[in-house]
Automatic annotation (TrEMBL):
Compartment(s) where it occurs, according to its Swiss-Prot or TrEMBL record: Cell inner membrane; Cell membrane
A GO term from the CC aspect: cytochrome complex
Protein name: Cytochrome D ubiquinol oxidase subunit I
Alphabetized InterPro entries for the sequence: Cyt-d_ubiquinol_oxidase_su_1
TM annotation in the entry: 15-36, 57-78, 98-120, 127-148, 187-211, 223-240, 323-347, 359-380, 404-432
Organism: Sphingomonas turrisvirgatae
Record GO terms (molecular function): electron transfer activity; heme binding; metal ion binding; oxidoreductase activity, acting on diphenols and related substances as donors, oxygen as acceptor
GO terms of biological process kind: aerobic electron transport chain
Protein family membership: Belongs to the cytochrome ubiquinol oxidase subunit 1 family.
Length: 484
C-alpha cells in the first residue's frame, strides 16, 4: 500500500511523529522537576505541610511523564541508524560525542538520583533527599543543554571540516562547536518554554479544583504559583523569542523569509503579514492582512530597512513556506494568549479575586495544554524551516536518508502510530486521572505503594495485617477460609 509513496517523505513523517510525541514529555518534565525542587525547598524552609503535600502529588505525575519521555526518546534515537544512516555516518564525528556527553552527564545523573527522589524520602535525611531532587532538576537541564547543542549545530554548523569520506569532523575547539551561533538563544528559548508549559499545566489543575472548591488550600497555592510564573515568564519569553528571531535572520535568512511570508524582497521596508494563505506556486500570499513596514521595524528596528525575500533564494533551497508560515503564527499567537492570561491574573490578584473569578479559572483551564501546542509549533518552525537540509546549507535531506524502500518505512511508521497512541495514550490518560483527583492533606508518598521486597527468590516473612491480630493462632489454623 506504500509503493506509491516517497520513502524519504515517509521517513520524515515518521521522525516528525516520534519526535513530536517525545518532546511533549521532556517539555513537561524539565519544568516539573524544577517545580518539585522549589516545592521541597519551600517545605524545608517554612515547615508547611502544604508544600510537602504538593510535592508528593506532583512527583507521582513527574514519574509517569519522565518514564514516557525516556521510552519515547530511546525509540526515536534508533531511527538515526535505520532511516537516517547516511546522516549518522556523515555527522557522527561531531554529533556522536555530543550525544554521548548527554548520556554520560545528564542521563546518568537523572538515573542515579531519580530513585532517591521518588522513593527515598523516608529512607534518607531531608537534606540528602532535597539534594537528590536538585540533581534530577539539574540533570533535566543538562540533558536539554546537550540535545539543543546538537540541534543547534545542525542549524548553524561551525568548527568543522570534511574528510576524504565526506564526513564532518571537528576542526576547531569543541567549545566553539558546542556553543555554536544559535545555541545560546535556542537553549534559553526552549528551557523557558518548558517552564512556561509546566506552569500552565499546574495552573490548569489548580483552576479545575478551584472551580469545585474555592477554599481548597492546595489548589489555591498551585494556582497562585502558576499564575506568578506565567505573569513573569511570558513577557521574558517574548523578549527572548525576539532575540532568537534576530539571530535566525542573521544565520538562516530563508527560514525567516518563510516565517514572514516574504516571497518578494522589500527595499523600502517590509510589511508584517498577520494572516494569509501562502501560495508557493505563484510566489505570493493570498488574502494577506498586513501592517506596512512593521516587519522591518521588528527585524531591523527601522521602518524603512530593506529585507530580502525568497526571490533571492534558489527554488530548490526554499523551505516549505506554508507550514513554516502557519506554525510560526500558532506559536506567536499562543504566546500572546499566555501573556494575556498572566496579565489577567495580575489584575485579579490586585483586586483580591484571584481565587474567585470563574472566568479566570476557565481561561486557565483552556490554556492548560497551550504550552504543548506552542512548543510543537515552535519545533515545526525550526525544523521545517531548515529544509531542504539536515545540516543547514551543507547536507541535503535527500542525501541523508537510508536506502530503504517505501513499504519498509511505511510499515514501521504504521507500527509506531498504533503503538504510540496505545501506550502513550494510556499514559496520558493516567496522568489526567491523577490530576483530576487533586492534592490532599497528608498526601501519601510513593513508597506507600512500593513493593516490600524487590530482589531475591526467597519470599520474605509473612506480613501481619491488622486483622491477623484479631484472630487467635489456634483459631486461624482451624479456620478453612483462613487456610485457603
Amino acid at each position: 500500500m506504500f509503493d506509491a509513496f516517497d520513502p524519504i517523505v515517509l521517513a520524515r513523517i515518521q521522525f516528525a511523529f516520534t519526535v513530536s510525541f517525545h518532546f511533549i514529555f521532556p517539555a513537561f518534565s524539565i519544568g516539573l522537576a524544577s517545580y518539585l525542587m522549589v516545592l521541597e525547598g519551600l517545605w524545608l524552609k517554612t515547615g508547611r505541610e502544604l508544600y510537602l503535600d504538593l510535592f508528593r502529588y506532583w512527583v507521582k505525575i513527574f514519574a509517569v511523564a519522565f518514564a514516557m519521555g525516556v521510552v519515547s526518546g530511546i525509540v526515536m534515537s534508533y531511527q538515526f541508524g535505520t532511516n537516517w544512516s547516511v546522516f549518522s555516518d556523515k555527522t557522527g564525528p561531531i554529533l556522536g560525542p555530543l550525544m554521548a556527553y548527554e548520556v554520560l552527564t545528564a542521563f546518568f545523573l537523572e538515573a542515579g538520583f531519580l530513585g532517591v527522589m521518588l522513593f527515598g524520602m523516608k529512607k534518607v535525611g531531608k537534606g540528602l533527599h532535597f539534594a537528590a531532587t536538585c540533581m534530577v532538576a539539574i540533570g533535566t537541564f543538562i540533558s536539554a543543554f546537550w540535545i539543543l547543542s546538537v540541534n543547534s549545530w545542525m542549524q548553524t554548523p561551525v568548527g568543522y571540516a570534511l574528510n576524504a569520506a565526506g564526513q564532518f569532523v571537528p576542526a576547531a575547539p569543541w567549545i566553539d562547536i558546542v556553543f555554536n551561533p544559535s545555541f545560546p538563544y535556542r537553549l534559553v528559548h526552549t528551557v523557558i518554554a518548558a517552564y512556561l508549559t509546566t506552569s500552565l499545566v499546574v495552573g490548569a489543575v489548580g483552576a479545575w479544583h478551584l472551580l469545585k472548591d474555592r477554599t481548597d488550600a492546595h489548589a489555591r497555592k498551585m494556582f497562585s504559583m502558576a499564575m506568578w510564573m506565567a505573569a513573569i515568564v511570558a513577557p521574558i519569553q517574548i523578549f527572548v523569542g525576539d532575540l532568537h528571531g534576530l539571530n535566525t535572520l542573521e544565520h538562516q535568512p530563508q527560514k525567516v523569509m518563510a516565517m514572514e511570508g516574504h516571497f518578494d524582497s522589500h527595499p523600502n521596508g517590509a510589511p508584517l503579514i498577520l494572516f494569509g494563505i501562502p501560495n508557493s506556486a505563484e510566489k505570493r500570499v493570498d488574502y494577506a492582512i498586513e501592517v506596512p513596514k512593521a516587519s522591518s521595524l521588528i527585524l531591523k528596528h527601522d521602518l524603512n530597512a530593506p529585507l530580502a525575500g525568497l526571490d533571492t533564494i534558489p527554488d530548490r533551497d526554499e523551505p516549505p513556506v506554508g507550514i513554516v508560515f502557519w506554525s510560526f503564527r500558532i506559536m506567536v499567537g499562543l504566546g500572546m494568549l499566555m501573556l494575556a492570561l498572566g496579565l489577567f491574573s495580575l489584575f485579579a490578584r490586585a483586586r483580591g479575586k484571584l481565587y474567585d473569578w470563574r472566568w479566570l479559572h476557565c481561561a486557565a483551564i483552556v490554556m492548560g495544554p497551550s504550552g504543548f501546542v506552542a512548543v510543537i509549533a515552535g519545533w515545526v518552525t525550526t525544523e521545517v524551516g531548515r529544509q531542504p537540509f539536515t545540516v543547514y546549507n551543507l547536507l541535503r535531506t535527500v542525501d541523508s536518508a537510508s536506502p530503504l524502500a517505501a513499504p519498509a518505512v511505511g510499515a514501521s511508521l504504521t507500527a509506531f502510530v498504533i503503538v504510540y497512541f496505545a501506550v502513550f495514550g494510556f499514559g496520558t490518560w493516567y496522568i489526567l486521572k491523577l490530576m483530576q483527583k487533586g492534592a490532599q492533606p497528608h498526601e501519601p508518598e510513593m513508597t506507600d505503594a512500593a513493593p516490600i521486597r524487590t530482589a531475591g527468590i526467597t519470599p520474605g516473612p509473612a506480613q501481619k495485617g491488622p486483622e491477623d491480630d484479631k484472630v487467635p493462632d489456634d483459631d486461624r489454623n482451624d479456620d478453612p477460609e483462613l487456610r485457603r
